[in-house]
């Protein structure tokens, strides 16, 4: 005979593994869902089951979607000839939230890392090089993190593309940022990327 709270404990343990939730937050979330069973718990469970059985990686760019090719890659409104390279899907979604970029994306699935034995073949770099030729790409925008691995990956990709314009996102002082709260690397990047006003 099973414990009467075994299923609840299991749900709380699973929820606690989500980013931003620990055991206490997970317990509160589960209790909230139980109280709103018909309005939130059951629709959430149904949506999770549906997404869990249909979600996949876009065969073209690496975004997540519920079909073989994502909406961004299929859209005729997207600028052809521009690809923005990001490390993972969360970065793609962040770029999309801004609503500024109107081209297409390519998700690498990580960054190069000698320590972790992650080379170009472990990432989606070969697929990127194929896309650049097949889609007549003229500009590649590197939107990779300002980490050592991110910059190593950016330089590697730039070296592979001698006939394509390669740009990167500007780095420096964020809007509303105060110099006193910025780290030395951010201040250095901002100073080096200064422009005339």
Distance between the termini: 74 Å
Radius of gyration: 21 Å
**Percentage of residues in helical conformation:** 40-55%
Average residue pLDDT: 89
Shape, principal axes of CA atoms: globular
β-sheet strand percentage: 5-15%
Q: How many β-strands, per DSSP?
A: 6
* Estimated structural class: alpha/beta
Q: What is the element string, with H for helices and E for strands?
A: HHHEEHEHEHEHEH
Main sheet properties: 4 strands, parallel
Low-confidence stretches: none
Physical arrangement of strands within the biggest beta sheet: 4-3-5-6
Please count the helical segments: 8
From the structure provided, what is the oligomeric state, counting identical versus distinct chains?
single chain
Task: Give a nutshell description of this structure.
This protein has 197 residues and is α/β, with parallel strands linked by helices. 45% of the residues lie in helices and 11% in strands. The chain has a four-stranded parallel sheet. It has a two-stranded antiparallel sheet with strand order 1-2.
List the helices and strands and how they pair.
Blueprint: H1 6-16, H2 23-35, H3 37-54, E1 56-57, E2 64-65, H4 71-74, E3 82-86, H5 89-98, E4 104-107, H6 125-134, E5 139-143, H7 148-160, E6 165-168, H8 184-192
Parallel strand pairs: 3-4, 3-5, 5-6
Antiparallel strand pairs: 1-2
Helix pairs in contact: 1-2
């Amino acid at each position: 005979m099973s414990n009467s709270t075994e299923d609840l404990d299991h749900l709380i343990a699973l929820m606690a593994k989500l980013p931003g939730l620990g055991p206490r937050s997970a317990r509160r979330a589960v209790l909230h869902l139980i109280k709103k069973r018909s309005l939130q718990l059951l629709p959430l469970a149904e949506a999770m089951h549906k997404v869990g059985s249909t979600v996949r990686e876009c065969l073209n760019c690496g975004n997540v979607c519920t079909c073989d090719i994502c909406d961004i890659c299929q859209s005729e409104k997207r600028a052809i000839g521009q690809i923005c390279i990001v490390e993972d899907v969360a970065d793609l979604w962040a770029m999309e939230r801004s609503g500024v970029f109107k081209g297409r994306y390519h998700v690498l699935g990580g960054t190069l890392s000698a320590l972790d034995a992650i080379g170009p073949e472990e990432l989606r770099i070969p697929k990127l090089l194929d896309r650049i030729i097949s889609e007549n790409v003229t500009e590649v925008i590197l939107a990779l993190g300002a980490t050592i691995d991110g910059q190593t990956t950016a330089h590697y990709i730039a070296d592979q593309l001698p006939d394509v314009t390669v740009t990167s996102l500007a780095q420096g002082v964020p809007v509303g940022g105060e110099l006193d709260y910025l780290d030395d690397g951010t201040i250095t990047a901002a100073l080096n990327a200064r422009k005339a006003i």
